[in-house]
């Protein structure tokens, strides 16, 4: 699995899903002017760009452990505090933020309890911590068709369904374990469409994330078999392609 890729490659692969999810997430959270917010694991910027529009670029910050992503974000958001850091070691003072968000990040944390604890630490009393992860466990993620096809064709497929936070209740449990209160456990739905099967498939070949990395391990014949099976499983273009993410939000005392 790798995110040491160009930000544009990540955007082409996951941005088509992360952008509409960020719209749903922020519509649920309703950040208000005057608040300060942090985007943890910002990636290509789906959340932090929207936060900057809502709160002002100087009222938000972002971290990511990938140097290419950090460089791209700094270029695109020069007035935003963007730092190279992981969730497990946030370079901010206690209580710096009113809202701390990790979209599509918890499943990739090396220490999820530690990462959530850091998110809580930098949240002020009365502030909120939010985390979302695609429903890989229930087969409703935007990548589930890819992984379904791979499991039908091959053995020992690392299909992401076993990662922490990808099944019902896991994110909420993490937030409660971290000491957050009034935890909301819900889901966000996104409806997607594609111009063609190839427009859906081609970004997988960029080698982004677990799916892209797995595809690169296959020989050409195996890749073609997987491509054809995905074409059979994907709803006819332009869709509908209905996907779901788990969302948990908690309040710090």
TrEMBL record:
Molecular-function annotations in GO: S-adenosylmethionine-dependent methyltransferase activity
GO terms, biological process: methylation
Domain called Methyltransferase type: residue spans: 38-130
Annotated transmembrane regions: none
Keyword tRNA-binding assigned: no
Pfam families cross-referenced by the UniProt entry: Methyltransf_11
Alphabetical keyword list: Methyltransferase, S-adenosyl-L-methionine, Transferase
Methyltransferase among keywords: yes
PANTHER family for this protein: METHYLTRANSFERASE, UBIQUINONE BIOSYNTHESIS O-METHYLTRANSFERASE, MITOCHONDRIAL
Name the UniProt record assigns to this protein: Methyltransferase domain-containing protein
Annotated organism of origin: Branchiibius hedensis
